[in-house]
Amino acid sequence: MVSTFDSQPGDPQPGAGAAPRLRVGRWRAAGLAAVLIAYLAATAYVAHTDLGLQSLVLVAAVFGILAISLDLVAGMLGLYSLGQGGFFGIGAYATTILANDYGWNVFGLLALVLVATGLIGMAVGAMSLRVSGLYFAITTFIFTLVLTVLATDMVTVTGGLQGLLGPAFPDFPARLEWLGTPLVWCIMLALLACLGLVWNIRHSPLYPILLSIRDAEPFAEAAGARTATIKVGVFGVSAAMAGGAGWLFSFLGVVSPSQFDWSVSLNVLVMVLIGGINTSIGPVVGAMFVSMFPNVVNINPWLQEIVYGALSILAITLLPDGVVGIARRALARRAGGIAAAADAASAEALPAAPDTTASSASPKDSEIIVECRGIEFGYGLGPKVLRNVDLAVRRGHIHGLIGPNGSGKSTLANVISGRLTPHAGEVRLKGTRVDGMPASSRSRLGLRRTFQAAQLVKELTPTQNVMVGLFDRVPRIVGRAPLWPMLASGRRDLAAMQHRASEALSLVGAADWTARQVADVPHGIEQLTQLASVCVAGPDIIVLDEPATGLSAKEVRHLAAILANLKTQGVTMIIIEHQTRFLFPLCDRVTVLNAGEVILTGSADEVRADPVVRQVYLGE
Amino acid sequence: MLQFVLSGVAIGSIYGLIGMALAISFYVTRIINFAQGQLMMVTVMVTAELASSGYPVWLAALAGLACSCIVGILSYVIAVRPILLSNRFSFGWLVSTLGFAVIVENAAAYIWGPTSQAFPPILNGISLPIGGAVLTAQQLLAIVTAAVLAAGFEVVRRYTLFGKLGMATAADPEMASAIGANTTVVAIVAFAVSAVYAGIAGLLIGPSTFANPYLGDTFGTYGFIAMMIGGGTERPIAAMFGGLLLGVCAEGANALINSQASDWFPFIVLVLILIVSPKGLFSTSNPLFRPRRAAVTRG
Q1: How far, in Å, CA of A421 to CA of A440, rounded?
Q2: CA–CA separation, A279 and A71 (whole Å)
Q3: Is the ipTM beyond the 0.85 threshold?
């Protein structure tokens, strides 16, 4: 099923660059098909082999699913869940109890377990996401702890520490008996499905968005992603996957509390980290290693535990990227050239996408598009940062915002774009009142922004970062992501998004850097990538927070040209900047802030001539 | 009533000490040392071993504390420092400190065997009637010691340069080393102190639990809960309050619900507290105690 990814041999590929891409695609499809056949053959072998090897492989496979479920949230979203053991336990206990005591159908139970653990996961996620980072790990840890305690103490239902004997897995119908043990097929196909799901997400445009939520949440929000909803949703999927693993596990023998306690959750994390976090097969490799370790190293159990502890410390200190991470980096170093060439070819091959910037009607001078009235804001208990600030920006204007450090410029930008909610006053975009609306909704009204310190995903290329900017311009990215590469519409949209992203990058003059990771590009290119990720969506209003910081004189001139060009296309801009020599020639109006108050709004010349401004800002 | 409050406070001060030990190492390095319970166990095992070979109890106890101090420093050098050096924000320490705990626990089981051994009774034999209740002198000793250690730490943290150095190291190690602090020394001292706190907790509870290599699991978990209930991640002394609350809840549940209730009741309390205030009851982010915005705006 996975082999349907990428170009089918018959896929029409317009343009001159189609041939190399087709060849790469064909090799890839052939490789995938070979891997798939080998996987099924191995499954068939295991299905006919002795019970000892079977249980070894099956336990490893179930833990593989568990590790994939953790990697989904830890690797892609940075949410180190220690609740996987808990969801795993819920799945196993629910299946065992309902099948044994109430005689429910086990396949009906699978659906029930998936839905129930998914919902519980979303509830736990919604609760834990009030706190971030370490506290998320801790609250999910406590979730597992509490479930273990319940499983141990509710002896009448769960059998206490002794546990319960799991249900039997139904046999194949007579026609299919030649396939061997049915449970082997069930577990191995489930593992394959989970691998496929994660692999698909990794090859969909959702992937850069998830990573941007992980590394640069304000950026993802400004691009229109409802980050909290996405986090809770993905955590729900991960929980359902862990619950499904529990369903599978219940058929393998006895279900008891020690199999789901917090040390299991931590062991799953060990698997993910040893195998390679945020890689497709790393978690499975780690799961194989950890679950097979006691069977392979057969010594005194205490010594064996000591060796295991020592190995996990060594692995985490010496191989922080895990086995697969190291291997991938070594491979990437060799294959980097080829991939880049293929990328360039594919970009050439695509039909022209619609213009990246909105070409709206000529600016009407009268219309006010962004309006702030009486904005009041202060951080925590400190003094107010904005006091009764009024700002009106007309459509098609470039509006400068200047003032000494600490005068509230960036705070005002955050209030306009939705990072901060004002304590009083109102913000209107195109006449709609938006204060109280999250940043992601303002993005849908055509507002985009850049950040003073570029908010980008360092491990992705500029092109992938710019694709994040297209999030709310492409329909149903989240819904289609689990099947993305298999859908014709998915392949088409991804190609179009890549094309538009690289076009936007060449428009801002960063075309030479598209194939590198953002971590390896100079600061100026980061700024330009930010700008491209904003422009690619064709917004009506752009808020730029110190776009010229860290740029060379030449780059600043180039930036001025880009902004002037955007203005001719009817884009309204609010620019915060200290370099008045760059800013003033561009601006229609300039507002000067000092100590949280507007001291003047006028044309650049008026501002330059004003004695108060000269005193507070220009320092004369 | 008085009985379970008093014995709850006594066992709670043990939980609180381990919670504080966790909080002290967290306070400087922003990591939770999963081997903390095992540090307590090391003191208990070494003390039991030496006392049973005929050394005086005070000498055995000192040697036990010294051993857990060494193991605590080793846990920092082996399991924490390499991870934080490569990436201060990575979660690799979850794995490495757990790995360290596994090593220490199983090494102890390998050396001494998995069964419990005798522990010197210290003051456990003396009982003191207080009102209608009875405490052993050992329990009273636990309460007093915990109070002294908690207050002592708070004084050091607030009023000495070293305490401020700890805060600075926690907030931003690079900045702290830029102003001349040796962050490695600060962290090593913090781990040593945390090991001593955990070890003292072990000496206080040893007479009633006896010496067992798996002690660290249970008490490490309760110490962790104490820290989370209290909000020790912000102020280590809050972990002590959390421990006392936990102890009273557990003993109260045993006395008022049934004799098994202390197994699950504290967890319900923990969940309820975290729902209300995710960073702990005595943390600054607790919505119930949050400092209010001043009614009169300044300026």
Answers
A1: 13
A2: 8
A3: no
Closest CA to A86 of A141, A128, A161, A132: A141
CB contact under 8 A, B99 and A137: no
| DSSP notation for A396-419 | T-EEEEE-STTSSHHHHHHHHHTS
pLDDT at A609 over 80: yes
Q: Which is nearest to A562 in space by CA: A511, A506, A512?
A: A506
Q: Give the dihedral sign, CA A272/A273/A275/A281.
A: positive
Alpha-carbon gap, residue A83 to A94, rounded angstroms? 17
Q: Are A536 and A571 in contact (CB under 8 A)?
A: no
* Partner-chain contact A134 B278, CB within 8 Å: no
Task: Please tell me the distance from the alpha carbon of residue B103 to that of residue A303, in angstroms, as a whole number.
Answer: 9
Question: Angle, to 10 degrees, between the axis of helix B57-74 and the axis of helix B36-52?
Answer: 150
Cβ burial A119-128 (10 Å sphere, 16+ → b, else e): ebbbebbebb
CATH annotation of B2-250: 1.10.3470
Largest Cα–Cα distance of chain B, in whole Å? 72
CATH numeric code, A355-446+544-620: 3.40.50.300
Q: What pLDDT does B54 receive? A: 87
CB neighbourhood size of B41 (10 A): 31
Cα–Cα distance for residue pair A561/A568, rounded to 1 Å: 11
Share of chain A above pLDDT 90, in %: 23
Nearest to A54 by CA among A203, A206, A180, A218: A180
Cβ of A305 within 8 Å of Cβ of B94? The answer is no
Residues A251 and A58: their CA atoms lie apart, in Å, by: 10
Domain boundaries defined on chain B = 2-250
Tokens 């990814």, residue located? A5
From the list A149, A316, A383, the residue facing B92 with the nearest CB is A316
Question: pLDDT tens-digit profile of B271-294?
Answer: 888 878 777 787 766 655 544 443
d(CA B64, CA A509): 66
Minimal CA separation from B250 to chain A, in Å: 14
Query: B110 contacts in A (CB within 8 Å)?
Result: 300, 302-303, 306
Show Cβ contacts of residue A496 under 8 Å, excluding neighbours closer than 6 positions. Answer: A350, A353
Q: Long-range contacts: A297-306, Cβ < 8 Å, 24+? A: A300/B110, A302/B106, A302/B107, A302/B109, A302/B110, A303/B106, A303/B110, A305/B102, A305/B103, A305/B105, A305/B106, A306/B102, A306/B103, A306/B106, A306/B107, A306/B110
Collect all residues of chain B within an 8 Å Cβ-Cβ radius of residue A384.
297, 299
Per CATH, the number for A56-331 is 1.10.3470
Scanning A307-336 for CB atoms below 8 A from B yields 308-313, 316-317, 320
pLDDT for position A446 = 87
CB contact under 8 A, B297 and A384: yes
Hey, which bits of A117-224 come out as E strands?
164-165
Which of the pair, A163 or A358, is modelled with greater confidence?
A: A163
**A154 to chain B, minimum CA–CA distance in Å?**
10
Q: What is the mean pLDDT of chain A?
A: 83
Q: Do B125 and B58 form a contact (C-beta atoms < 8 A)?
A: no
Q: Confidence band (pLDDT; 50, 70, 90) for B50?
A: very high
Given an 8 Å threshold on Cβ–Cβ distance, is B95 in contact with A266? Answer: yes
Domain positions in chain A are 20-49, 56-331, 355-446+544-620, 459-537
Contact flag B278-A130 (C-beta cutoff 8 Å): yes
Distance, in Å, from the CA atom of A270 to the CA atom of A283, rounded to the nearest integer, reads 9
A134 touches chain B (CB under 8 A): yes
Considering just the CA atoms, what is the radius of gyration of chain A in Å?
28
CB contact under 8 A, B99 and A381: no
Question: How many beta carbons lie within 10 A of that of residue A479, not counting itself?
Answer: 10
Segment B72-95, tens digit of pLDDT: 999 999 999 888 887 766 778 888
